[in-house]
Design a protein that fits this description.
- A hairpin with a 5-residue loop joins strand 4 (87-95) and strand 5.
- The longest helix is centred in the last third of the chain and has 18 residues, at 126-143.
- The chain has one domain: Hotdog Thioesterase (Thiol Ester Dehydrase, Chain A, Roll).
- The protein is built from four helices and five strands.
- By secondary structure, it is an alpha+beta fold.
- The model has no long low-confidence stretch (mean pLDDT 95).
């Protein structure tokens, strides 16, 4: 699944009274990793927005496998799972510093113009569409 890796060092404020990372923070890490991934493939989110394209979150799902604690550095593996020009699904796998899977998840997104209307990247940004197709192919090849 891996096409991009992002590391995050767990901060004290991300933990709860039980000394574990609070579940809501994993979703924040997904966003950090997604923004980093997009920049790494040449589509920085701020550039996308400056050019009039937004990509809101439509859905998020997260399965927690084991706890993460303060001071641990986790690695998020990020991959484009689905893409059709209008929508995309990004997959995440969070690994602890020991290499064990702590969490897996996905987020679903669409593409909107400044007026909030759905757009197909193949029509409005064919060069971006090509990048996403390339990333999808790369992720599918890695899965084999």
């Amino acid at each position: 699944m891996t096409t991009h890796q992002y590391q995050h060092k767990v901060q004290y404020y991300e933990t709860d009274q039980m000394g574990m990372v609070h579940h809501s923070n994993y979703i924040r890490w997904f966003e950090e990793a997604r923004v980093d991934y997009l920049a790494a493939v040449g589509l920085p989110y701020d550039q996308m927005e400056a050019e009039g394209i937004g990509s809101p979150v439509l859905s998020v799902q997260c399965q927690y496998k084991s706890k993460v604690v303060f001071g641990e550095t986790v690695t998020l593996h990020v991959s484009l799972l689905k893409y059709n020009g209008l929508r995309m699904t990004i997959g995440y796998q969070v690994l602890g510093s020991d290499g064990k899977v702590r969490c897996v998840g996905e987020s679903g997104h669409c593409f909107l113009n400044r007026e909030g209307r759905p757009v197909t990247l193949a029509k409005v940004k064919p060069e971006w569409h090509a990048v996403f197709l390339q990333q999808l192919e790369k992720a599918e090849t890695t899965d084999r």
